[in-house]
Amino acid sequence: MPTSVELRQQRAGVVQSMRAITETAEGENRGLNAEERQSYDRHEEDFRSLTERIERLEAEEERSAQMAEPIRRGAARPDDSTRTTDEQRAQERRAAFFQALRRGLPRMAPEQRALVENTAGEILVPEDLETEINRSLPELTIMRGIASQRSTNSNRIRRRSLAEVAVGWGKLETNEQTLTDSMPSTPDEEYTYIEDLYGLAKVGEDELDDADINLDAFIRDSFARACAEAEDTAFTVGTGHAAHQPVGYMTSGGGVPTVAAAGATAITTDDMMKLIYATPKQYRRNGRFTIPSGTELAIATLKDADDRYLWQPSLQAGRPNTFLGYPVENQEDIAAVAASARVAAFGDFQAGYRIYDRQGMTVKVLTELYAEDGMIGWKIRKRVGGDVIRPQALRILTMAAA
Fold it and tell me: What SUPFAM superfamilies does the record point to (predicted)?
């Protein structure tokens, strides 16, 4: 008779098969054919059946464990145990994850290995730990703090070009209303792809064997910092799916309209005002600048007609400086001021750019590759995408040609 852990492994295989069917159809931009639909329905029935068996077995295993425990004063009653079942499983997965990082999957007991191993033989980062890592990213990045974010279970997102809604006044009963077609041409169908972000961390074997090392804090801090730096660069200047990167809003692939500066080597107040007013008014309300630190230093000396500085330092920790009344975010991946360079952006990034996170961060333990150096390697994979979803919400300042 199979255990609940073995049934969970079977169910994971069923889910993988269902995902393969849908991804094949999505990749060909079509619905499921008759054979695929029949296979999908059969897998769905298997999933429901396995779920019922897992729940039944886990309940029996839990009752057996409770019957074997000695009676203790003040212990939780059997009917109270269901409240902590999910929490206990999360703790078990987390403990198994850190054990896998220290020892590797082959050296783990089968029941523990099943808690954290996926079908590709990689170690799955527990959902609660992945959530903690993602929660700390906005504190380390610019784009995650100002752009919209969304979770997905797909390897690409279908999006169609949509214009803003057009409205008009009139009376319905007398057919006096006049409506303008917001999209007179045929919409284009496009995709935003979820890309793989890889990282490598190495830890000394002696350090890893020390009982006092806080792996929990190390994973959260190290993973989050490494991912944050790479993501911010890709969301800003990433060249798209052909290069296995998100689409950066500062690139031509993002489709953001540009505003030409008057000069080639210096930014003026007029250039920055032109950038602001080129952005539609509905997006100026939540507008903000993104520029590198060197460019902010240059505009910090600009003054108005009354010799007052237009740049204002922040008086509160955690809040950005302002220029012409709008927040200034430092994004060091943007080009410095030079002829023909894209040097600044302005607009509502919450409306204009979206980040897609696909759950399922994984780790591979490389025990042999660095054995001679006394090190153990962790190869980390995180799946994330990003794209401009509303180009009209943003504007880019481009310097004049030399």
Answer: Major capsid protein gp5
Say which amino acid occupies 26. E
pTM of structure: 0.69
Final residue before a domain boundary, out of 15, 31, 58: 58
Give the position of tokens 């001679």. 372
With a cut of 50, say whether residue 212 has pLDDT above it: no
The region that residue 358 occupies, defined by phi over 0 for left and psi between -120 and 50 for alpha, beta otherwise, is beta
Grouping H, G, I as helix, E, B as strand and the rest as coil, residue 121 is: coil
Alpha helices in 28-142 (DSSP H): 34-68, 82-103, 110-116, 127-140
Q: Burial level of 269, CB count in 10 A (0-12/13-18/19+)? A: middle
Asked whether 345 and 339 are in contact (CB, 8 A), the reply is no
- Hey, how many other C-beta atoms are within 10 angstroms of the C-beta on 117? 20
Exposed e or buried b per residue across 36-55, where buried means at least 16 C-beta atoms within 10 angstroms of its C-beta: eeeebeebeebbeebeeebe
Distance CA 308, CA 224 (A): 41
Say if 379 falls within a structural domain.
no
User: Is residue 187 domain-resident?
Assistant: no
Q: Per the structure, how many domains does the chain have?
A: 2
* Angle between helical axes of 82-103 and 215-237 (0-180°, round to 10): 80
Alpha-carbon span 378 to 204, nearest angstrom: 11
Neighbouring-strand partners of residue 311: 323
Residue 246, domain member (yes or no): no
pLDDT given at position 173:
64
Q: What is the pLDDT of residue 109?
A: 83
Note the pLDDT tens digit of each residue in 299-354.
Answer: 999 988 888 899 998 877 668 899 999 999 999 999 999 999 999 999 999 999 99
87, pLDDT greater than 70: yes
Q: How many angstroms separate the Cα of 373 from the Cα of each of 204, 208, 312?
A: 8, 14, 51
Residues above pLDDT 70, as percent of the chain: 84
Backbone angles phi, psi at 30, to 5 degrees: -150, 170
Q: In the predicted model, is pLDDT for residue 108 greater than 60?
A: yes
162: which DSSP letter?
Answer: -
- Residue-range definition of the domain harbouring residue 339: 254-353+391-398
Residue 308 within a domain: yes
What is the residue whose two structure tokens read 């089968």?
110
Q: Which two tokens stand for residue 249?
A: 């809003």
